[in-house]
């Protein structure tokens, strides 16, 4: 009653043993594909973590650098500006990690929050009544009167270019893990299970426990079983090319580090622009939002304070170098995995599974 290991000679196998063999080959195939995938998956997961750590390090540095701008040059508003600055960098971090947000909305939201502070602490430092309604009116007016000139839009443009490549790379790495996980759990067809039993276990039914499959026979069986996986070859090669393109983009025109450290200067230029146009802005705001209460006597406002550039810290230099090195290492490794899906059958037929150095092997029917 054997279905798979039918043979002319007497046999020690039963139908129940054939079923056990089928369960064994399914388990073994999953384990062997997982073992092949492990190194590649480990490499990608390691780089996802490394990239994220480098991103976070750069973001923290840029955030501290931006906060120090308010503490050194715009002290009257430093305390209240801390929250909008924090929100801006949180939004940037979420964007890089793939959240449903845009760089433009994050930057414009920041400038919406910044304008009431600039207006009441720097342009008109005598204002005492900054009610919620008045603050909200200033926020909404910001969009119409454009107090920060071209600097807010320039910041959106610069950040969008550089953060886009980082966001795409982050998503592409996650997709790579997804593809590898899917190939690990690709179900074997009944025909494939039978072919694998015939190749690996039918010799046992004849008492030939030490004989192993011939190389060519193993390749035929494995290629048949893994046809769906090897079909990923063209897309996988394209995926590697896309990763290469994204890492090059990040290192070239879309340099994340330059864009993040440039945030401080963009904000400074924007605030200076608003201060220089203070009288015109006040006239327009008074028409739209009304006149707020003024404190008695004229407070001196530290109108325009030149900003001392913060010296580049060791942390940033290290994070920058680390990110560049990781990019290079990673893409060189991934380029070597270009043929990963095309060569999976060859790698499964390598090693102990087949008989390489002997004159006798199993061809599915007999010892040859």
TrEMBL record:
**UniProt superkingdom:** Eukaryota
An example GO BP is: cell migration
Q: Does the keyword Signal apply?
A: yes
Coiled-coil region = none
Q: Which InterPro entries match?
A: Glypican (IPR001863), Glypican_CS (IPR019803)
Pfam families (alphabetical) = Glypican (PF01153)
| Keywords on record | Cell membrane, Glycoprotein, GPI-anchor, Heparan sulfate, Lipoprotein, Membrane, Proteoglycan, Signal
- Transit peptide recorded as keyword: no
The subcellular location is: Cell membrane
From the UniProt annotation, give the residues forming the signal peptide: none
Q: Give the record's membrane topology.
A: Lipid-anchor; GPI-anchor
What GO terms fall under cellular component here? cell surface; extracellular region; plasma membrane; side of membrane
Q: What does this protein do?
A: Cell surface proteoglycan.
The similarity annotation says: Belongs to the glypican family.
- Name this polypeptide is given: Glypican-5
Q: What is the lineage of its organism?
A: Eukaryota, Metazoa, Chordata, Craniata, Vertebrata
């Amino acid at each position: 009653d054997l279905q798979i290991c039918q043979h002319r000679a007497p046999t020690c196998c039963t139908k129940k043993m054939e079923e056990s063999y089928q369960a064994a080959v399914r388990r073994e195939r999953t384990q062997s594909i997982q073992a092949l995938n492990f190194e590649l998956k480990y490499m990608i997961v390691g780089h996802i973590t490394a990239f994220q750590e480098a991103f976070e390090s750069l973001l923290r540095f840029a955030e501290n650098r931006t906060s120090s701008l308010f503490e050194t040059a715009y002290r009257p508003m430093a305390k209240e500006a801390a929250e909008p600055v924090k929100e801006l960098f949180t939004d940037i971090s979420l964007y890089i990690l793939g959240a449903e947000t845009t760089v433009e909305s994050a930057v414009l939201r920041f400038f919406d929050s910044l304008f009431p502070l600039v207006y009441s602490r720097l342009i008109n430092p005598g204002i005492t009544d900054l009610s919620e309604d008045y603050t909200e009116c200033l926020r909404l007016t910001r969009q119409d009167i454009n107090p920060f000139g071209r600097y807010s839009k320039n910041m959106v443009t610069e950040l969008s270019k550089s953060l886009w490549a980082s966001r795409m790379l982050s998503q592409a790495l996650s997709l790579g893990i997804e593809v590898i996980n899917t190939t690990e759990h690709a179900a074997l067809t009944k025909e494939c299970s039978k072919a694998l039993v015939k190749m690996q276990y039918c010799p046992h039914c004849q008492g030939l426990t030490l004989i192993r499959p011939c190389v060519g026979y193993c390749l035929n069986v494995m290629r048949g079983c893994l046809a769906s996986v090897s079909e990923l070859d063209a897309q996988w090669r394209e995926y590697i090319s896309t990763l290469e393109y994204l890492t090059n983009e990040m290192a070239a025109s879309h340099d994340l580090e330059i864009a993040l450290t440039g945030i401080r200067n963009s904000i400074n230029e924007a605030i200076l622009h608003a201060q220089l146009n203070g009288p015109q802005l006040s006239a327009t705001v008074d028409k739209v939002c009304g006149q707020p209460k003024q404190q008695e006597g004229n407070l001196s406002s530290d109108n325009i304070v030149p900003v001392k550039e913060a010296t580049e810290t060791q942390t940033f230099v290290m994070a920058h170098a680390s990110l560049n090195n990781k990019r290079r290492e990673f893409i060189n490794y991934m380029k070597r995995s270009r043929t990963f899906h095309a060569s999976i059958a060859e790698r499964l037929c390598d090693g102990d599974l087949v008989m390489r150095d002997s004159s006798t092997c199993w061809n599915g029917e007999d010892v040859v």
